[in-house]
Specification:
Blueprint: H1 2-60, H2 68-96, H3 101-110, H4 112-118, H5 120-134, E1 143-146, E2 149-156, E3 160-164, E4 170-174, E5 181-183, E6 192-198, H6 203-215, E7 228-235, E8 239-245, H7 253-270
Antiparallel strand pairs: 1-2, 1-5, 2-3, 3-4, 6-8, 7-8
C-alpha cells in the first residue's frame, strides 16, 4: 500500500513538469508556425510588388509611351506600388501574431489630428510632388537648378526629388523644400560665349572677325541656325567683353559652347590675336 502511494506521489510530482514541457513545446511550435507564416506573407508580398513593377516597366516600354513624362509617371507608380505592398505586408504580419489591425487603424483614425501635426512635412512633400507632376514643372531626365544645386533628375517620387550633379553627387531634396526651380531642359536653350579683350584691341576688328566666323560655323548637332554676335556687353578702362549667343537643344548646350570656343580660338590663332 505504501509503495502504491509513493508511486502515485511521484507521478503527481512529475505531471506538472510534463505539462509545463508540453506547453513550452506547443508555444514554441505555435510561434515557429507564425514566424514561418509571416515569412511566407513577406515573400508573397515582395513577389507581388516585383511583378507589378515589372508590369509597369513593360507598359511604359512601348514606343508610343516613351518620353520624359512617362519616365516620371513610371517612377511615381513604382513608389506607390512599393508603399502599398509594404502596408499590406505589415498588416498581415501583425494579424498573424494576433494583433488587432482594425483597432490600430481605428486608433490611428482617432489620433489622426495629433499625428497630422507631426506629419505636416510629409503631407506637404506628397502634395507638392503631385502638383509638380500635374503642372509638368520638370520630368525625369531634365537638367534643373533648385536650392543652389544643379543636375539631372534621376527620380521623382511622391516625397523627394533626386538630382545627380555633374560631379556624380546625388542630391535628395524633399519636394516641400522646392520653392523655385530653373528648368534648363524646356524647349530650347541658349549657348552663351563671353569673350574679354584688352582695351587696346580694336573693337571693330574683333566684331568683324567674330561675325565672319559665326557665319562659317559648320552644322553642329543640336544647334539651331547660326550663332549671333550681340556686340559689347561689358566695358571698362582695362578691357571690354563681347557676347555670342545661339539657340540649341537643351541637352546639347554645353557641348555646343565647347565647340564654339574651339572654333573661335582657332580663328584667333589664324589672325594672330
Amino acid at each position: 500500500m505504501n509503495e502504491s502511494s509513493s508511486v502515485l506521489n511521484e507521478a503527481f510530482d512529475v505531471l506538472p513538469q510534463t505539462v509545463a514541457q508540453n506547453d513550452f513545446i506547443n508555444t514554441t511550435w505555435a510561434m515557429g508556425l507564425k514566424i514561418a507564416e509571416s515569412a511566407v506573407i513577406v515573400a508573397i508580398g515582395l513577389i507581388v510588388s516585383y511583378a507589378l513593377r515589372k508590369a509597369i516597366e513593360k507598359f511604359f516600354r512601348l514606343p508610343s509611351r516613351a518620353g520624359a513624362k512617362t519616365d516620371t509617371l513610371k517612377s511615381l507608380l513604382h513608389n506607390f506600388v512599393k508603399y502599398i505592398c509594404w502596408f499590406f505586408i505589415i498588416c498581415q504580419v501583425l494579424a498573424t501574431f494576433g494583433v488587432a489591425v482594425e483597432s490600430i487603424l481605428a486608433v490611428a483614425g482617432i489620433g489622426s489630428v495629433a499625428i497630422g501635426f507631426g506629419a505636416q512635412t510629409i503631407v506637404k512633400d506628397v502634395i507638392t510632388g503631385i502638383f509638380i507632376l500635374l503642372e509638368n514643372q520638370y520630368n525625369v531626365g531634365d537638367v534643373i537648378t533648385v536650392n543652389g544645386m544643379s543636375g539631372i533628375i534621376e527620380s521623382l517620387g511622391v516625397r523627394t526629388t533626386k538630382i545627380r550633379g555633374a560631379n556624380g553627387d546625388l542630391h535628395i531634396i524633399p519636394n516641400s523644400a522646392i520653392t523655385a526651380v530653373t528648368n534648363k531642359s524646356k524647349y530650347y536653350k541658349r549657348p552663351i560665349i563671353n569673350l574679354t579683350f584688352p582695351a587696346a584691341q580694336p573693337v571693330d576688328k574683333i566684331l568683324n572677325i567674330l561675325s565672319d566666323e559665326m557665319l562659317l560655323v559648320p552644322q553642329i548637332p543640336g544647334l539651331h541656325g547660326q550663332p549671333r554676335v550681340l556686340g559689347l556687353i561689358g566695358l571698362s578702362v582695362a578691357d571690354y567683353t563681347v557676347q555670342i549667343q545661339g539657340e540649341c537643344d537643351p541637352e546639347e548646350c554645353w557641348n555646343i559652347e565647347r565647340e564654339l570656343r574651339h572654333i573661335i580660338k582657332l580663328r584667333f590663332e589664324k589672325e594672330n590675336i
